[in-house]
């Protein structure tokens, strides 16, 4: 379909378009601007598909299949004056069918989960477990001994095995060493500044 073949300057009908959904089916409803009376309706089972097609020469025009209550159908061309409205129309249909696809996948996964054997992680009758927490062993009827820390509440760990203690090297004394000497940053030479 080509929109340039249509009489775009004088459309046969103008009105309001609404996209609604009921279950997995989306509906394009063409309604009167003022009264809201339904002019035509197009049920859509899948998108993209035969119920809504884009034209080859514009992103603002579409061909939809409208149907009445008796099952009769006709193809009509619709168009939007604003490109943003056409984009929103397209995105709303894509979002609806993306939701339908996700719902279908979720229901399939839940049915597959019901057929798989369930993993029973509960305790059987009479089954017990034993937990060892650190070095806190207790005697029957006794109280656990608290760990003794070094003086001041700070305990130090021994050095790692095979580790060497590195002593920082001491610089050799020089005869011109000045205490608290700070070296100034280097001065960049520029062609505009003369050095004195």
TrEMBL record:
One of its GO terms (cellular component) is clathrin vesicle coat. One of its GO terms (biological process) is protein transport. It is found in: Cell membrane; Cytoplasmic vesicle, Clathrin-coated vesicle membrane. Belongs to the NECAP family. Residues 157-174 have a biased composition (Pro residues). Residues 1-134 form the NECAP PHear domain. Residues 140-196 are annotated as: Disordered. This is Adaptin ear-binding coat-associated protein 1. Involved in endocytosis. Keywords: Cell membrane, Cytoplasmic vesicle, Membrane, Phosphoprotein, Protein transport, Repeat, Transport. InterPro entries: NECAP_PHear, PH-like_dom_sf. The keyword Glycosyltransferase does not apply.
